[in-house]
TrEMBL record:
Keywords tagged on the record: Amino-acid transport, ATP-binding, Nucleotide-binding, Transport
Positions of the ABC transporter domain: 2-219
Protein name: ATP-binding cassette domain-containing protein
One biological process term in Gene Ontology: L-amino acid transport
RNA-binding is among the record's keywords: no
Keyword Nucleotide-binding: yes
InterPro entries associated with the record: AAA+_ATPase, ABC_transporter-like_ATP-bd, ABC_transporter-like_CS, BCAA_Transport_ATP-bd_LivF, P-loop_NTPase
Organism for this UniProt entry: Tritonibacter litoralis
Gene Ontology MF terms: ATP binding; ATP hydrolysis activity; branched-chain amino acid transmembrane transporter activity
Similarity-based family: Belongs to the ABC transporter superfamily.
PANTHER family membership: HIGH-AFFINITY BRANCHED-CHAIN AMINO ACID TRANSPORT ATP-BINDING PROTEIN LIVF
Length: 219
Protein backbone atom coordinates (compact mmCIF):
# COMPACT_ATOMS: atom_id res chain seq x y z
CA UNK A 1 0.00 0.00 0.00
CA UNK A 2 2.50 2.64 1.22
CA UNK A 3 6.24 2.18 0.82
CA UNK A 4 8.84 4.70 1.96
CA UNK A 5 12.39 3.73 0.97
CA UNK A 6 15.59 5.38 2.19
CA UNK A 7 14.38 8.97 2.08
CA UNK A 8 16.33 11.90 3.48
CA UNK A 9 14.77 15.27 4.32
CA UNK A 10 16.71 18.40 5.18
CA UNK A 11 15.19 21.63 6.46
CA UNK A 12 17.24 24.83 6.22
CA UNK A 13 20.43 22.83 5.85
CA UNK A 14 19.75 20.50 8.78
CA UNK A 15 19.13 16.80 8.10
CA UNK A 16 15.92 15.85 9.90
CA UNK A 17 15.32 12.42 8.31
CA UNK A 18 18.16 10.17 7.17
CA UNK A 19 17.57 7.11 4.98
CA UNK A 20 14.14 6.54 6.52
CA UNK A 21 12.13 3.53 5.39
CA UNK A 22 8.80 2.00 6.38
CA UNK A 23 5.84 0.24 4.83
CA UNK A 24 2.14 -0.03 5.59
CA UNK A 25 0.22 -2.93 4.08
CA UNK A 26 -3.42 -2.90 3.03
CA UNK A 27 -5.67 -2.99 6.09
CA UNK A 28 -2.73 -2.60 8.48
CA UNK A 29 -2.39 -0.07 11.32
CA UNK A 30 1.21 0.92 11.99
CA UNK A 31 2.60 3.04 14.79
CA UNK A 32 5.44 5.54 14.45
CA UNK A 33 6.76 6.18 17.95
CA UNK A 34 9.27 8.85 18.87
CA UNK A 35 9.94 11.78 21.12
CA UNK A 36 9.17 15.35 20.13
CA UNK A 37 11.65 16.46 17.50
CA UNK A 38 12.51 12.91 16.41
CA UNK A 39 11.17 13.48 12.88
CA UNK A 40 7.62 12.08 12.98
CA UNK A 41 5.93 15.17 11.56
CA UNK A 42 8.67 15.63 8.97
CA UNK A 43 8.08 12.11 7.67
CA UNK A 44 4.32 12.65 7.51
CA UNK A 45 4.75 15.95 5.68
CA UNK A 46 7.15 14.39 3.19
CA UNK A 47 4.59 11.68 2.40
CA UNK A 48 1.95 14.38 1.93
CA UNK A 49 4.13 16.36 -0.47
CA UNK A 50 4.67 19.31 1.85
CA UNK A 51 8.45 18.75 2.11
CA UNK A 52 10.95 17.74 -0.60
CA UNK A 53 13.06 14.64 -0.10
CA UNK A 54 15.88 12.72 -1.69
CA UNK A 55 16.39 8.97 -1.81
CA UNK A 56 14.73 6.03 -3.49
CA UNK A 57 11.20 7.34 -3.04
CA UNK A 58 7.69 7.19 -1.64
CA UNK A 59 5.12 5.04 -3.40
CA UNK A 60 1.43 4.59 -2.75
CA UNK A 61 -0.08 1.70 -4.69
CA UNK A 62 1.13 2.42 -8.23
CA UNK A 63 1.65 6.16 -7.62
CA UNK A 64 5.11 7.68 -7.31
CA UNK A 65 4.36 10.42 -4.79
CA UNK A 66 7.51 12.31 -5.72
CA UNK A 67 5.90 12.96 -9.10
CA UNK A 68 2.46 13.91 -7.71
CA UNK A 69 1.20 17.31 -6.61
CA UNK A 70 0.32 17.65 -2.94
CA UNK A 71 -3.40 18.02 -3.68
CA UNK A 72 -3.38 14.73 -5.61
CA UNK A 73 -3.22 12.85 -2.31
CA UNK A 74 -6.95 13.42 -1.80
CA UNK A 75 -7.65 11.99 -5.25
CA UNK A 76 -5.54 8.92 -4.39
CA UNK A 77 -7.58 8.30 -1.22
CA UNK A 78 -4.97 9.52 1.27
CA UNK A 79 -6.20 11.43 4.33
CA UNK A 80 -4.01 13.41 6.73
CA UNK A 81 -4.59 14.65 10.26
CA UNK A 82 -1.82 17.16 11.06
CA UNK A 83 -0.61 17.52 14.63
CA UNK A 84 -1.84 21.13 14.74
CA UNK A 85 -5.21 20.28 13.11
CA UNK A 86 -4.99 23.01 10.43
CA UNK A 87 -8.69 23.81 10.40
CA UNK A 88 -9.97 26.96 8.70
CA UNK A 89 -11.25 28.93 11.73
CA UNK A 90 -14.07 30.79 9.97
CA UNK A 91 -15.32 27.75 8.07
CA UNK A 92 -18.07 25.67 9.61
CA UNK A 93 -17.30 22.14 10.72
CA UNK A 94 -18.92 20.75 7.58
CA UNK A 95 -17.03 23.16 5.33
CA UNK A 96 -13.76 22.02 6.89
CA UNK A 97 -14.75 18.40 6.36
CA UNK A 98 -15.58 19.13 2.71
CA UNK A 99 -12.14 20.56 1.88
CA UNK A 100 -10.70 17.23 0.59
CA UNK A 101 -13.72 16.77 -1.70
CA UNK A 102 -13.19 20.26 -3.09
CA UNK A 103 -9.50 19.47 -3.64
CA UNK A 104 -10.47 16.31 -5.51
CA UNK A 105 -13.24 18.19 -7.40
CA UNK A 106 -15.76 15.66 -6.15
CA UNK A 107 -19.46 16.16 -5.48
CA UNK A 108 -19.86 12.76 -3.81
CA UNK A 109 -21.17 13.35 -0.28
CA UNK A 110 -21.57 9.66 0.53
CA UNK A 111 -18.26 9.70 2.36
CA UNK A 112 -19.38 12.67 4.46
CA UNK A 113 -22.50 10.77 5.47
CA UNK A 114 -20.34 7.77 6.36
CA UNK A 115 -18.20 9.99 8.60
CA UNK A 116 -21.28 11.39 10.33
CA UNK A 117 -22.53 7.84 10.91
CA UNK A 118 -19.13 6.85 12.33
CA UNK A 119 -18.84 9.99 14.49
CA UNK A 120 -22.37 11.22 15.29
CA UNK A 121 -21.04 13.98 17.54
CA UNK A 122 -19.55 15.68 14.48
CA UNK A 123 -22.94 15.90 12.82
CA UNK A 124 -24.40 17.55 15.90
CA UNK A 125 -22.15 20.59 15.53
CA UNK A 126 -21.72 20.54 11.75
CA UNK A 127 -23.02 24.13 11.41
CA UNK A 128 -20.73 25.61 14.07
CA UNK A 129 -17.61 27.52 13.08
CA UNK A 130 -14.39 25.68 13.83
CA UNK A 131 -13.02 28.52 15.96
CA UNK A 132 -15.86 28.05 18.49
CA UNK A 133 -14.88 24.44 19.28
CA UNK A 134 -12.62 23.16 22.03
CA UNK A 135 -9.20 21.78 21.12
CA UNK A 136 -10.45 18.22 21.54
CA UNK A 137 -13.49 18.84 19.35
CA UNK A 138 -11.24 20.35 16.71
CA UNK A 139 -9.16 17.15 16.74
CA UNK A 140 -12.33 15.18 16.05
CA UNK A 141 -13.16 17.48 13.14
CA UNK A 142 -9.63 17.14 11.76
CA UNK A 143 -9.98 13.36 12.02
CA UNK A 144 -13.33 13.53 10.24
CA UNK A 145 -11.77 15.61 7.46
CA UNK A 146 -8.96 13.07 7.04
CA UNK A 147 -11.52 10.28 6.83
CA UNK A 148 -13.41 11.98 4.01
CA UNK A 149 -10.29 11.81 1.87
CA UNK A 150 -8.67 8.74 3.38
CA UNK A 151 -10.69 5.85 2.07
CA UNK A 152 -7.41 4.02 1.31
CA UNK A 153 -4.76 5.40 3.68
CA UNK A 154 -4.79 7.59 6.80
CA UNK A 155 -1.82 9.47 8.21
CA UNK A 156 -2.56 10.54 11.79
CA UNK A 157 0.10 12.77 13.32
CA UNK A 158 -0.06 12.81 17.13
CA UNK A 159 -3.88 12.51 17.23
CA UNK A 160 -3.93 12.09 21.03
CA UNK A 161 -1.56 14.95 21.86
CA UNK A 162 -3.06 17.66 24.09
CA UNK A 163 -6.49 16.01 24.23
CA UNK A 164 -8.48 15.40 27.42
CA UNK A 165 -8.60 11.71 28.45
CA UNK A 166 -12.27 11.27 27.49
CA UNK A 167 -11.70 12.65 23.99
CA UNK A 168 -8.48 10.66 23.60
CA UNK A 169 -10.51 7.54 24.40
CA UNK A 170 -13.07 8.54 21.77
CA UNK A 171 -10.35 9.08 19.18
CA UNK A 172 -8.94 5.63 19.98
CA UNK A 173 -12.39 4.08 19.55
CA UNK A 174 -12.79 5.66 16.12
CA UNK A 175 -9.33 4.56 14.97
CA UNK A 176 -9.98 1.04 16.27
CA UNK A 177 -13.29 0.92 14.37
CA UNK A 178 -11.41 1.61 11.12
CA UNK A 179 -9.93 -1.89 11.15
CA UNK A 180 -13.26 -3.22 9.94
CA UNK A 181 -13.05 -0.83 6.96
CA UNK A 182 -9.75 -2.37 5.75
CA UNK A 183 -8.07 1.03 5.83
CA UNK A 184 -4.32 1.36 6.08
CA UNK A 185 -3.31 3.67 8.92
CA UNK A 186 0.00 5.21 10.00
CA UNK A 187 -0.36 6.85 13.42
CA UNK A 188 2.43 8.72 15.16
CA UNK A 189 2.69 9.07 18.92
CA UNK A 190 5.29 10.12 21.47
CA UNK A 191 4.97 6.82 23.36
CA UNK A 192 2.99 3.58 23.40
CA UNK A 193 0.34 4.78 25.85
CA UNK A 194 -2.46 5.08 23.30
CA UNK A 195 -1.25 3.38 20.15
CA UNK A 196 -0.13 0.03 21.59
CA UNK A 197 -3.73 -1.20 21.63
CA UNK A 198 -4.33 -0.14 18.03
CA UNK A 199 -1.33 -1.11 15.96
CA UNK A 200 -0.26 -4.25 14.11
CA UNK A 201 3.31 -3.10 13.54
CA UNK A 202 5.47 -0.53 15.31
CA UNK A 203 8.26 1.65 14.00
CA UNK A 204 10.41 3.78 16.25
CA UNK A 205 12.07 6.99 15.13
CA UNK A 206 15.07 8.56 16.83
CA UNK A 207 17.10 11.46 15.45
CA UNK A 208 15.53 10.99 12.05
CA UNK A 209 16.29 7.28 11.74
CA UNK A 210 13.46 4.74 11.57
CA UNK A 211 13.66 1.17 12.83
CA UNK A 212 11.04 -1.52 13.27
CA UNK A 213 10.34 -2.45 16.87
CA UNK A 214 11.23 -6.08 17.67
CA UNK A 215 7.92 -6.65 19.48
CA UNK A 216 5.73 -5.71 16.50
CA UNK A 217 2.81 -8.07 15.97
CA UNK A 218 3.42 -8.24 12.22
CA UNK A 219 6.46 -7.76 10.07
Amino acid sequence: MLTVTDITVSIQGTTVLKDASLSVAAGQTCGLIGRNGAGKTTLMRAIMGALPFTGQGIFFRDHDLAEAKAHNRAEFGIGYLPEDRRLVPHFTVEENIMVPLWAAKSEDRARVKWVYDLMPEIGRFADRRAMTLSGGQQKLVALARSLVAGHQLLLLDEPFEGVAPALAQRLMEVVADLKSENLSVLVSDSDYTHSKRLVDKVYTIERGQVTIAPHSKAA
